[in-house]
Amino acid sequence: MALVQPLASGNVMTNGSATNCSAVPGKAAGAALGCDTAAAQQLSSDTQQAADHKSGAAAAGEAEEAPVEEEVDITINNVVCSFSVRCHLDLRYIAMNGDNVEYRRENGMVTMKLRKPYTTASMWSSGKITCTGLTSEPAAKVAARRVARYLQKRLNYQTRFCNFRVVNVLGTCTMPFAIKIADFSQKYPRLACYEPELHPGVTFRIKEFKATLKVFSTGSITVTAPSVAAVQRAIEHIFPLVNEFRKERTAADLAAVAASRARRYGSRDSSESDLDDDDSDID
Amino acid sequence: MASSSGRKVQQIGCPAHPEAHLIEDYRAGDQICSVCGLVVGDRVIDVGSEWRTFSSDKNAADPSRVGGAENKLLGSSDLSTMIGDARGAASFTADGQSKYQNRRQMSSSDRALTNAFREIALMADRISLPRTIVDRSNNLFKQVHDGRNLKGRSNDAIASACLYISCRQEGVPRTFKEICAVSKISKKEIGRCFKLILKALDTTVDMITTGDFMSRFCANLRLPNYVQRAATYIARRAAKELDIVPGRSPISVAAAAIYMASQASEDKKTQKEIGDIAGVADVTIRQSYKLMLPRAAELFPPDFNFHTPIEDLPEL
C-alpha cells in the first residue's frame, strides 16, 4: 500500500506557490519546479528552490510500490485570512480617497485589490478585514500587513494589526489514478456524501482536521481546511482510503486530464470549475 | 357482569334482597333483581355499539365513529372541535357574512404541521404517489419539526425534501427535478434541505441506480417492454459492470441507454424527447451516449433483436 508519509519539516509546505509532496526521491529542484503551480506569481525563486530541494530529500524515505514512482502534488489555490485593525473605518472616506477600491453599499463593505500578492481585501466599518485569493500563508501575512499599512499611511488611520488568522485554505491535488467514487462513497456512509444529481463529486468530511474534501471520479481531490498543514494531513489521510478504489486511467481519460491541465495553466485563472454545488452534469 | 356481593354497599342492589344477583336487561336498560323481579337500576347505559358495521364496507363512513380518526402525528393534546368553512344558506347571516367568524385557533406548531401535511399530500397527488409514501413523508416531517434543527428553513422546502427522502426510502426514488416540478422550491434548496435532514435524523439513503427510473421513463415514452428491458440491461452494464461512464449521473446514463435501445429498435425516440421526460439536457444524453457507443456490442443483451443493427446506430 502506498502511503504518503508526512514531510519532516512543516514549513516546507508553505513556501512558494508550488507545494510538492513529491514522492520521487532525489529529484532535481529544477524538474520539480515544472510541477503544478496555481498562481502566476512566484515568491523569490531561491526560497522556492530550497523548498523543493528539501521536499525531495525529505521524501526520499518514502516507500512506494516498486517500479511505479508516484508523485502527488498538492497545489494551494486559495488562502483566506482575517484580521482586525482595531479602529473604526469610514468606508465612504476610503472609497473616495483610496486607490483600487470598490464600495458596495448593499453589502456594507469596501473591497480593495492588491497587485503584488494578488489578493482582494474586504473591509468592514468595524475594522475587520478579510483577504482572499492568496496562495500561501506567508503571502497572506504580507498582504494583510500591506493592507493595514496602506490604511495607516495613506488614509491616516491609527491602525493596530491584530488578530491575524488564516481562516480557510483551499488545496487541490490530482491522484495518478481514477477513482471509483460510487464504491468509495458506499464504504464510508457517515463521512462521505455522494449525490450524483446534486454534485458530481463525493463530499468527504474529516472531523479530526476539520477538512472537507471533494473527491472526483477523475482522481482530482479538492480540500478545504483551516490551514495548509491540515490540507496536507487530510490528503495523506485520504490517500490510502482512495487508493483502495483506484482504477487505472484509460487513454481517453489521460487525454482529458492533459487537456484540462493545458486549459487551466494556459490561463491565469486557477479556480476549479467544479467547486460550486450547482449541477454541472445535468442541465 | 352483575354487581358481586364482595363490593361496597354503594353498588346498586335490591333493597329486599341485597345479596341477590342482578340481571341486566340490555334492551330496556334495566337491572332486575333475580329473586323478586324488582327493577333496581334503570337507564343503564349500554356501552355496546350503536350501529352494526360489516368489515366488507370499508370505504363508507363508519356510523359508530364521531369525527375522523385521530391523527397521531398532530399533537394528541388537541381534542377541540373546529368549525369548518361555511356551506349552505343557513351559515350566512342576513348581511351576507358567515355566522361563525371566530374559528377556534389551533396551536401554532399544529398549524405548521397541518399545513405541511396538506402540502405534502398536494405534491404527492400531482405525481400520483401512493399513500405509504405520503405517510412516511409526514412522519419524517414531524420528526424534523420536533428536532428543530432546520427551524430557519421554509416549511415547504422541508416538506419537499421529506417527500424526496421518503420516495428514496421506499425504493422508488424520484429525481430532484421531478420533485421540483410539483413544488415551488428550487432544486438547490431542496438539495440543501435534503442533506440537512439526513444529518439531523442521522440516516442514510441508498444510492440511486439506473434501474430505478427505467419503468417510469419508458412508460412515459410509451416504449415497448422489450426496449425497456434492453435499456435496463444496457444501463446496468454501462454503469455497474463495465464502468464506462465514470462520474456521470445515473439519470443521464439511463437516458442514454434508453436512447440507444430505442434507436436499435423500431420505435426510435429522439434525444430531445427523452431529455424532456428524464429532465436531462439533450447534450448530456449525447455525451453519455458518445461514451457508451464504442462498446455498444457488449452493452446490448444477448437476446435482443435488432431492428437497426449496431453499426447503423447514430453517431451523434
TrEMBL record, chain A:
Gene3D superfamilies: TATA-Binding Protein
Pfam families documented for this protein: TBP
Family matches, as SUPFAM superfamilies: TATA-box binding protein-like
Keywords: Cytoplasm, DNA-binding, Nucleus, Transcription, Transcription regulation
Composition bias type Acidic residues, residue spans: 272-283
GO cellular component assignments: cytoplasm; nucleus
GO BP: DNA-templated transcription initiation
Cytoplasm as UniProt keyword: yes
Cell compartment(s), UniProt: Cytoplasm; Nucleus
Region (Disordered): 44-66, 260-283
InterPro entries (alphabetical): TBP (IPR000814), TBP-like (IPR015445), TBP_dom_sf (IPR012295)
A GO MF label: DNA binding
Family: Belongs to the TBP family.
Protein name: TATA box-binding protein-like 1
Organism name: Amphibalanus amphitrite (Striped barnacle)
Gene from which this protein is expressed: tbpl1_2
TrEMBL record, chain B:
Gene3D superfamilies: 2.20.25.10, Cyclin-like
All residue ranges annotated as the TFIIB-type domain in the record: 10-41
Domain of life, per lineage: Eukaryota
A biological-process GO annotation: transcription preinitiation complex assembly
Pfam families: TFIIB, Zn_Ribbon_TF
GO cellular component: nucleus; transcription preinitiation complex
Keywords per UniProt: Initiation factor, Metal-binding, Nucleus, Protein biosynthesis, Repeat, Transcription, Transcription regulation, Zinc, Zinc-finger
GO molecular function, one term: translation initiation factor activity
Cell compartments where the protein resides: Nucleus
Main location: nucleus
Matches recorded under SMART domains: CYCLIN
Similarity annotation: Belongs to the TFIIB family.
Primary role: General factor that plays a major role in the activation of eukaryotic genes transcribed by RNA polymerase II.
PANTHER family xref list: TRANSCRIPTION INITIATION FACTOR IIB, TRANSCRIPTION INITIATION FACTOR IIB-RELATED
Protein known as: Transcription initiation factor IIB
